[in-house]
Write a structure and sequence with these properties.
Layout: H1 2-22, H2 30-50, E1 59-62, H3 67-82, H4 98-108, E2 112-120, E3 124-131, E4 136-140, E5 145-149, E6 155-158, H5 161-164, E7 169-173, H6 187-202, E8 207-212, E9 217-222, E10 227-231, H7 236-249, E11 259-263, E12 270-273
Parallel strand pairs: 1-3, 4-7, 7-8, 10-11
Antiparallel strand pairs: 2-3, 4-5, 5-6, 8-9, 9-10, 11-12
Helix pairs in contact: 3-4
Length: 274
C-alpha cells in the first residue's frame, strides 16, 4: 500500500513538472534571446553598411606620372560607379565592380597592361595603372605604319621609327598591318627575335633591323653592311652558336669587309662576299 502511494506520488510529480515546463514563458528562453540578439546585431550592421554612408566611396586615388591619363582614369571610374547605383550598391566599397572599372580603363588606354584596383577602407579606391613595356617596333608597308609591341607581340600604340631607333628591336614585316590590341606575331616568334637580338649583342654585333619574310625567314640587317639569315622554324639557339663559331674563327672583324650575308638556315653556316 505504501509502495503504491509512493509510485503515485512520483508520477503526479512528473506530470506537474511537465506542466510547469510547458507553461514557461518564451521570454525566459535562452534560444529566443540568442536569435533576437543576433537579429538586432545583423540589422544594425546592415544599416551601418548600407545606409550610414560611412563606406560610400568619397575619394579615388590614381597613380602614375601622366597627369592627363590620371584625370581620365579617375573620371572613368567615377562614371562606372555612378552607372551601377542600386538599392544594394550605392557606391559602397564592398560592392564595387572592380573588373568592370578595369575593363573600361583598358578599353580607353590599350597602352596599359592592367589597372590594379584596391579598396582603402573606409571610403577610398586606389587605382595603379600598369603600362605595357615596349619591346619591339613592328613596321608595315615599308615603314608607312609602325606600332609598339610588348613582350607577347601585342600591338598597343602607333610609333615613329625615329623615336625608337636604337632603343628597341625594329621589325619590318611583309604581312598586313594589324589593329591595336591585335598580335603582330605569335609569342614564340617574338621570343626568338628577342633571343637573336640578345645573342648578337653578346657578340658585339650591332643590328639595324629585322625583316620578317615568308616561310619563317628572318633576315637581320647588320650595321657593318652584311646580313644574317635565320629560319624561325629551326633551333635559334643552335644557329647563334654556329654564328659565334664562324665569327670567331673564319670571319673576324678584319675579314668581314665586303661580306654580303651569312646563311644559318642549314646544318652548316654558309657565307658569301659581295
Amino acid at each position: 500500500m505504501v509502495k503504491a502511494s509512493i509510485s503515485s506520488y512520483k508520477i503526479n510529480r512528473r506530470v506537474a513538472l511537465k506542466k510547469f515546463r510547458k507553461k514557461k514563458s518564451v521570454w525566459q528562453s535562452r534560444i529566443f534571446w540568442v536569435v533576437f540578439s543576433s537579429f538586432i546585431f545583423l540589422g544594425g550592421l546592415g544599416y551601418f553598411v548600407f545606409f550610414s554612408g560611412f563606406f560610400l566611396i568619397k575619394d579615388i586615388q590614381v597613380g602614375g606620372s601622366n597627369e592627363a591619363i590620371r584625370a581620365v582614369i579617375k573620371e572613368l571610374a567615377q562614371r562606372e560607379l555612378q552607372a551601377n547605383l542600386s538599392f544594394f550598391n550605392r557606391q559602397i566599397i564592398f560592392f564595387v565592380g572592380y573588373k568592370n572599372i578595369e575593363k573600361k580603363i583598358l578599353d580607353v588606354y590599350p597602352i596599359l597592361k592592367s589597372a590594379v584596383i584596391k579598396a582603402k577602407l573606409p571610403d577610398a579606391l586606389i587605382i595603379e595603372p600598369i603600362e605595357r613595356k615596349p619591346v619591339m617596333v613592328w613596321c608595315y608597308q615599308d615603314g608607312a605604319q609602325c606600332f609598339l609591341t610588348d613582350e607577347n607581340c601585342l600591338v598597343f600604340e602607333p610609333a615613329l621609327v625615329g623615336d625608337w631607333q636604337g632603343k628597341v628591336g625594329l621589325v619590318f614585316s611583309s604581312s598586313g598591318a594589324p589593329k591595336i590590341l591585335d598580335k603582330a606575331c605569335e609569342t614564340n616568334v617574338a621570343k626568338q627575335i628577342i633571343q637573336i637580338e640578345d645573342g648578337l649583342s653578346q657578340l658585339s654585333i650591332f643590328l639595324d633591323r629585322f625583316i620578317l619574310g615568308d616561310n619563317g625567314l628572318l633576315t637581320v640587317k647588320i650595321q657593318e653592311g652584311w646580313e644574317a639569315r635565320f629560319d624561325l622554324a629551326g633551333d635559334t639557339g643552335l644557329d647563334l652558336i654556329k654564328l659565334k663559331v664562324l665569327l670567331e674563327k673564319d670571319l673576324t672583324l678584319d675579314k668581314r669587309q665586303g661580306l654580303e650575308y651569312i646563311d644559318l638556315r642549314f646544318s652548316k653556316a654558309y657565307y658569301k662576299y659581295k
